[in-house]
Amino acid sequence: MALVDLVKPEIIKVPLESKSKQAVIRELLQVLVDAGKLNDFDAAYDALLAREAKGSTGLEAGIAVPHAKTDTVSTLTLAIGIAPEGIDFRALDGNPSNLFFLMLAPPNQSGPHIEALSEIARITQSKTFCKMLLRAQSPEEVAELLTEED
Amino acid sequence: MEGPIRRILIYVDGTEEAITAAQYAVCLAKSTGADLHALYVINTRALNDLVKARIFLDSEEEEYHHDLESDAERYLKHVDKLSSRKGVTAALEKRSGTVHQEIKKYAEEIDADVLLIGELSHVRSRRDEFYHETERAMRLVHCSVLMVKDEERVWDLYDALPE
Q: For residue B123, what pLDDT is reported?
């Protein structure tokens, strides 16, 4: 499953309202609940926090990729959030995070999970592209940028 | 007399599309008498990329690598079942590395006449074209490539095949 198959306006929040790490994870999980993609909010939250406890998924350059394996989803599930002001996600470089790609994967789908995370790693290497995402004003605009529909 | 297809390579990645392609490969092997080879590639390149990007911790890399090893066993075993049920023997191969490069290498090693792949999702992004491993393999291999479509029709063909 390609990343592009997961990107829909209903799983994107622009701008995020949260101001803390835990709050942004909760906000993105709520996006998934509202989109009908997640039923067990608490179990997914616990799985994500357990992963964060091992080391922050706040990377450099404002990117954060909170992720977890959990049986609360039956298929690869993605939520995207954009916080132009930045949120302290305890990132590796100490800077605030702006672009959040939250991914949940069922335990039996490690292959697609790895491929999707790998795609995120690749597309976020472009600083120009990340700037374009940060300037997006709506979920539709973010989806359009990510899918680059012809 | 040898036909144009003597060795069939099926790439198995665990998707439903790849399973459909495997069923079609069994049908093709049965009707042509060709040898059937099934390949699964553990995507260690992606794992390394994720560690480099610091998305994965070292412990996660190990955990996911182990998951992918299990996937390889499971999916290749499934192809083995699909083929043996119809009296076809499949050679099963597990490799590690960059997926499209390993497919290319193995296709050359066995001198495959045709590579069968599952249906690719509709390309809706120019970005996607650059990164889809199976699509890259399709462009790279030396042999002909057959993309298997129409799951229901293939299922019927496979079902109707004598055991």
A: 58
